[in-house]
Give the backbone structure.
Amino acid sequence: MYRFLFITLFLLPVSAQAEPHTIIQVVGNHYVSPEDFAAELKDRDSGITREEIDTKYRNFLEEIRSEQRGQMMILKELINRHKLKAVYVEDVTERNAKEFLRLIQSVKNGAAIQRVSSDFVELGAAGRLVVSGELQMILPADDSAAFEASNPARSGGPLEFAKKVEFDKKANERREDAIVRNLMKAKGVAVILLGEDHNLRDNMLQLGVSSKYEKTGTVNVKGSRWEPLRKRQLVD
């Protein structure tokens, strides 16, 4: 009987199962290590100098830090408003989540300070809020198989550099479908940190998900800096 019930639930469309009433996507970019940043620039321009790389990386970190401050402001507001204890994070899968959470916990305990910068920018906005105690934990937004199939060069986890690979639209759609299915495990409001290029509305419609969808966060201003948008909805 129980096996039959499990099979029945598995075959039901997502809309027939429990689902959050709202999905909120907080947009943002990824942290990149100095080594990976330099390697990418050298791949693009073999003649680039060390000084040029250092300057570009300082500018990049300034943008990421500014962006994360905006994300943290938004997340704090959402945590207070919806009593959130966890948020979903892009690039975190069931396979790499434990390793990432161990790093966050070691930073929180003061055991890994040498591995990260003083403001913990490597951990991302959600990870930094876990360290500060304002958030209890992060949740994997990605399914490992769908994630690796859509972009195998990024399968190392949230602390790896997103290397350039040929874009596979169908594989990306399958990845976004998997992300939506993961979000359906939430109750009430599901908040996800996910890049601005991703839009889950079509995937939700395809899967029969009726949850409200909001997209907010930060936008690139004149291609050089990031401006936090706390209340503007970016979804059409």
User: Anything to note?
Assistant: The mean pLDDT is 80. The beta strands are 22-26, 86-89, 137-140, 189-193, 212-221, 225-229. Residues 22-30+70-216 form one domain. The longest helix spans residues 50-82.
